[in-house]
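Fold sample X.
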Amino acid sequence: MAKSLSEQSLSGVLWLFLDKLGSSSINFLITIVLARLLLPEDFGLVAMVMIFFELSSVFVESGFSTALIREKTISEIDKSTTFIFNLISSVVLYVALFLCAPLIASFFDQPLLTWIVRVMGLNLVIESIAIIQRSTLTQQIDFKTQTKARFLAVVLSGVVGIGLALAGFGVWALVVRIGVMGLMETASLWRLNPWKPSLQFSKASFRKLFGFGSKILSAAILDKFFTHIYKVVIGKFFSAASLGFYTQAGTFTNMVINTMFRTIQRVTYPVLSKLQDDLEKLKDGYRKVLKLSSFIIFPSMMLLGVLAEPIIVTLVGEKWLPSVPFLQLLCLSGATYHLTTVNLNMLLVLGRSDLSLKLEVIKKIIIGIAIVIGLKYGIYGLVVSEVVSTYINLLLNAYFSKKLLKYSLPQQLRDILPTMLISLLMGVLVFFIQTLPYPNTFLHMLLGLVFGGLTYLGLHLLIRTDEMTMIRRLIIPKTIQLIAKLR
């Protein structure tokens, strides 16, 4: 079984990495093209309303997806019950958003938001239709099918978005692109993984799934709300352009996190869920996840922060220079994302969604206090408060890891200490080579990334860290074997 799970997880990582390398990279490139064609205000307008759609999506999903993935086998009645509940919820929430759209526009003092909300809201219903396909494929650790569906959606929606931007449609290029992506991905998932709902609703199935999922729902609502609360505050108290700069900085950090860590996260949750009854194997699995994700996230955030200015100017242009300080600050918080998420995932795998909810409540109170304090010092004080709160929240998340899995934060930090020190040394060296004269920002960025990457890998090889040994002896050989099987 262990060997089978190992092969499944590596296969899943491979396909998700291909997804991120392909779909997410293309999506990122499309965003860069749109950033050059559109104004910061356009991105700011879309960012203002994203909190409402993120919260609505959480309500629609209601924790059912996580509950289904955790099931060892998913029955047809579970699927049908989940499908019916999610579809009805999405329609109800869309109607609510449609009616509340003028109020949202009035809150931000942006009349255009009324129809932006009403058009983007359709995506709630569209994406809810594919919840069973996504959940069952993830539970089966089948990311190959999801990769195909997402790739097609990203490419077609990108073509539409860029075409509208070139035609002068402004913010609507972003709005329509989001809608087309959701529609195409849902249609592709139904075609690649067909399923016929029985239209049966089981109260017993609902209680079982919602019993676990309701706590995840409550925690997710808090998490989504406070993830986007900074955008709401910036959109309310500062300009749409300022929110655009902040959002663009978040696009870069999210690209790294989505491509690198969330690939590992999405695979390891269903895999480690199968080890929930063996705490020793589960702890060993999380140690490997933490080491491997730190090996990727720490140097990526370090390079992104140190080379923020040449990266921003080269990729999206000088008009986005005000994004640089935001990007550097968000890199500090982004470096802790995988640590926080790994500790939170431990609770979900162990079935302690109740503790997850309690933690989210406490953490959000801290974020609320941080916002009140930070806002007194302007927009940069607000973002600094975001960084500080992420480190406090990490301490809270790690408390129960020590209690339930005997894997404390000091133990976690000892496991990743070599990677932290190597990343810091690499960052210092890259910072100092920036004093050299460069003919243009592209060469500045390229040489910084190449020098930093080679220095980082070279130090790992020289010291012979566990992470590099794991990659050389286990991951690379098995990945080659899996690629050979896929041919």
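Fold sample Y, listed below.
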Amino acid sequence: MSERSFVDTNILVYAHDSSAGDKHKLARELVERLWEERSAAISTQVLQELYVRIRRQATRPLPRSRAVALIEDYLAWRVVVNDERSILGALELERAHRISFWDALIVQAAITSRAAVLYSEDLNDGQQISGVRVQNPLLP
């Protein structure tokens, strides 16, 4: 089994938005590989954001039934539930690393899942935060 990877919302959105061009291709390839490896983690925040974005903000929004089915599929991954410890940890990460609270909550979930890698385009590629390496899989 490969090292655990945490996937941020934007990567999943691109994986399911065929109008996203090269980002769609790269994100889809990553998500398919993570399915095969059974090594991915996400959080309740990611699932909530994914549902809203693919229903309301996508170039081609998904019908509710398809969006629900997609969320149900991702429940097969390791899902981190954001609780009071997650919030307090994110508040500390926000302060210590000068990142947004929402990004800090993603990083905290990656830490909780024991991920070695956090796939995201919202943080700096190569950045290390509390033992988690940020990697932007959409860079050339």
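Sample Y note: The mean pLDDT is 94.
Also: The chain has one domain: 5-135.
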